[in-house]
Automatic annotation (TrEMBL):
Lineage: Bacteria, Bacillati, Chloroflexota, Dehalococcoidia, Dehalococcoidales
Name assigned to this protein: ABC transporter protein
Signal sequence segment: none
Residue ranges crossing the lipid bilayer per the database entry: 21-41, 171-190, 211-235, 241-262, 274-295, 325-346
Domain of life of the source: Bacteria
GO molecular function: ABC-type transporter activity
Organism, as annotated: Dehalogenimonas alkenigignens
Pfam families named among the record's database cross-references: ABC2_membrane_3
Domain ABC-2 type transporter transmembrane: 23-343
Amino acid sequence: MNPRTIKALLKKDIALFTGNRFYLLITVLGLIFYIAIYLILPSKVDEKLSLGMYAPVVPPAFEQLTAQGAEIEFFETEAALKQAVLDGGHQVGVSLPADIMEVWNAGGKPGITVYYSATAPPETAEAIVTLIKELSYIQTGQALQFDTTEEILGPDLLGAQIALRDRMRPMLAVLILLTEVMTLAALIAVEIEQGTARALLVTPMRTSDLFAAKGILGVGLALGQAVIFMGLVGGFSHQPLLILATLIIASIFVVGAGFLLASLARDTNAVTGWGIMVLILLAVPGFGAVVPGLLADWAKVIPSYYLIDTVNRVVNYGAGWSDTAGNLLVMSGISAVLLGAGLLVLRRRFQ
């Protein structure tokens, strides 16, 4: 590869990028928009307890909760209660046995099941047990014994509660990166439509020089914006080198996806249409970071899952290199395959 040729091509590509008002606008405004979203979102965890309950027979003392203005919702089945907690409708669900009063009156210990949401505050378990003890005392005038079975629905994040805007941070960073898939693909599509690429290949310039220039531009656009965003929202506060390495791998993924999209789309309109669909699909794993337990294991087939999961675990939960090595390996492999496929298909289209 010829460094001078690549430098000249980069200048041409940058001029082409800045001359395209649409993609220049969405690049600049998109970065500002995502930073604004992060700053607007709540920075504190909502510690207000939301309680669901399944009780075939509701003890009178428990009915006093609603009379005192407590946020409690009764469900007709235990399955409906579990689903409500799993979906995030309630932080805690309490399931009372049908014979709770008979067991108490006989001096026994009824079994009470407590379901916790993955996002429930760490002090919730102790608060619920204390609440049940107080209600049982109100009911009978004495401290009664009971056995509790606790179950975390979704990934167990108890003790590691994250504010909404920090849970959104990995998704916003990925959206910034993925937007550049369309930008790079559109720039290449324009050159294909106008015949610029073929005209350049008639000169002594090598195809590798052309692809190297496009790749450097793509990595620069994607990585530059992601670094600015993560820097402004505190994304480098923990393991900055690990986050930077993750973003570099993601930028290579962006270049490969951009090459592949440009080679398959007929024109810039097709690039935009297909690019939006790809963007939506790759953004899906981000919802798993925002609402833990929302997505099933099938989300792991989406390549961006490993990027989002890595950023989320490092930035929000203090993970290190050893914790995320598997994700980085998978993401590196996917990026390499995607880049290779993009180069192969794009080379054939130029020829």
